[in-house]
Design goal:
Layout (H helix, E strand, L loop, with lengths): L14 H13 L3 E2 L8 E3 L4 E9 L3 E10 L8 E6 L4 E6 L7 E13 L5 E7 L3 E3 L9 E2 L2 E3 L7 E3 L8 E2 L7 E7 L1 E2 L16 E8 L3 E10 L8 E6 L4 E6 L7 E13 L5 E6 L17 E2 L2 E3 L7 E2 L12 E2 L7 E7 L8 E3 L4 E4 L4 E4 L7 E7 L7 E8 L3 E3 L8 E10 L2 E12 L19
Parallel strand pairs: 28-34
Antiparallel strand pairs: 1-14, 2-9, 3-8, 3-11, 3-12, 4-7, 4-14, 5-6, 5-8, 10-11, 12-13, 15-26, 16-21, 16-23, 16-24, 17-20, 17-26, 18-19, 18-21, 22-23, 24-25, 27-29, 29-32, 30-31, 30-33, 33-34
Length: about 450
């Protein structure tokens, strides 16, 4: 990249690249930038920080950073997400890499990204890197994610670990993310003014049309507001489900606080999200919540008593139940929909396999979204004669002892999470036949003498 003449290019196309793309972005339900794009060459001229500029069309949570590794690459790698101004937002080390292909590093805390902003994902290269020249001259879009077509994408820095800003031929260096689309209640709605009475606990009642994880609480901060803030999630009857402190707030606008442990919420159930005010708050016009506001799976409750607050000043932290003309105080949640997990694949023994040990280990694939598994073993196809049944398993294998010889066994596995169950994947195997040893000598009844 420092000079075009130092490129060392090889044509290479691997079918497994497409397999990795498919399994990561489609089968597992994550959204990545690149899908069927294939590197066309490698470079080995120097070590760099290589990156991709991208944006999102809706609020999302970055869960992983990934990069494509060529066979000649080695050493340690760190993935980073940067703001367009060069602020490092998060980073993660890659552990247990394979020799080549897509490498993944999961963030310990997901990073929320927002529409209208440009971000850069980068990973250092030590000795070799994949590239495709001019591939980022036009925007590449997949789902909610798109690369930036500014004639300066495919960015690098000649010093690894530093913010990449240079570009050569809009080359794609295959730095990517995996992100989960998120859902908030309010999108384009904005406050109509600012008031300074209080302070109060202020909230909104809402429901979800499907099971979801509440990952963050948010509120709109007016210019006159100051002091610390705590977000609370409640049941409709006032049981506190979670609390989180807001940190590193900006002067004005939407503020966000991630829950350390996401909270599962049930479909068609009323919850209340609230955040305290201190010196000011930003309401809507009266009646903004008289009708339900819906965005995706989330809706406000139109019960003529929404836009709730704690009643009298200096009642921060109290469950809010009062309402004044269905006014919106712009308290919100960020949720990730929970889908029923995928059906597991039974890996071994293979279906209808014979000669299996009477002490077998049964193995099945990981199901995306699964929190646990149920395993059953029986001697009949209807599972009426159960030999074993267990739920809540958190591994992908189970070992047995003491099974019968020359016996047909049927086994099945289902994956579960808060949203429900995948249903069972079923298989069959037959254990090894027992053989009686043949006594060749001495012959029965014959005596031998020394």
């Amino acid at each position: 990249m420092k000079k075009a003449s130092v490129y060392f290019a090889k044509e290479f196309f691997f079918a497994k690249i497409l397999l990795f793309f498919f399994s990561a972005s489609v089968l597992f339900g994550q959204n990545s930038i690149f899908t069927n794009q294939l590197p066309v060459g490698t470079g080995n001229d120097s070590d760099y920080e290589l990156g991709t500029k991208f944006t999102t069309s809706q609020v999302a949570s970055i869960t992983k950073i990934k990069y494509y590794k060529t066979p000649g690459e080695n050493g340690l790698h760190t993935g980073k997400i940067w703001s367009s101004g060069g602020d490092k937002l998060t980073e993660v080390n890659f552990i247990t890499e394979s020799a080549s292909g897509w490498q993944y590093a999961e963030l310990s805390t997901p990073l929320m990204i927002f529409p209208g902003n440009t971000y850069i994902v980068s990973v250092n290269a030590n000795s070799e890197y994949a590239f495709s020249p001019n591939e980022l001259a036009s925007s590449i879009s997949n789902g909610i994610l798109s690369t930036i077509a500014d004639n300066n994408n495919g960015v690098f820095n000649e010093t690894p670990e530093l913010f990449p800003t240079l570009s050569f031929n809009n080359s794609n260096y295959y730095r990517d993310i995996e992100a989960v689309p998120l859902n908030s209640i309010f999108t384009t709605e904005l406050p109509a003014g600012e008031f300074n009475d209080g302070p109060y606990e202020m909230g909104v009642k809402f429901t979800s049309s499907q099971a979801a994880k509440v990952r963050a609480i948010s509120y709109y901060k007016p210019a006159g507001e100051s002091g610390p803030h705590i977000g609370n999630l409640w049941t409709s009857s006032g049981t506190l489900l979670a609390s989180v402190n807001f940190l590193n707030e900006t002067a004005v606008g939407w503020q966000y606080a991630f829950l350390s442990t996401p909270v599962n919420i049930s479909p068609n159930t009323v919850y209340v999200v609230s955040v305290n005010s201190n010196t000011a708050y930003a309401p809507s016009v009266n009646g903004a919540l008289a009708s339900s506001v819906t965005n995706g799976i989330l809706s406000t409750v139109a019960d003529n008593n929404n836009g709730v607050f704690s009643g009298v000043p200096n009642t921060q932290g109290i469950f809010p139940t009062f309402s004044f003309q269905n006014t919106n105080y712009f308290r919100d949640v960020i949720v990730e929909p929970i889908d029923v997990p995928d059906l597991p694949n039974l890996v071994s023994p293979a279906n209808n396999e014979t000669g299996i040990s009477i002490e077998p280990t049964l193995n099945w694939s990981t199901s995306y979204g699964a929190e646990s598994y149920t395993l059953e073993l029986a001697t009949d196809i209807n599972f009426s004669n159960l030999v074993f049944s267990a739920s809540g398993l958190t591994t992908n294998s189970y070992s047995f002892t003491g099974l019968l010889n020359n016996q047909n066994y049927y086994w099945r596995v289902s994956a579960e999470n808060f949203a429900g169950t995948s249903g069972f994947a079923t298989g069959k195997f037959k254990t090894v036949q027992a053989y009686i040893p043949y006594l060749a000598f001495p012959v029965n009844g014959v005596k031998t003498y020394a």
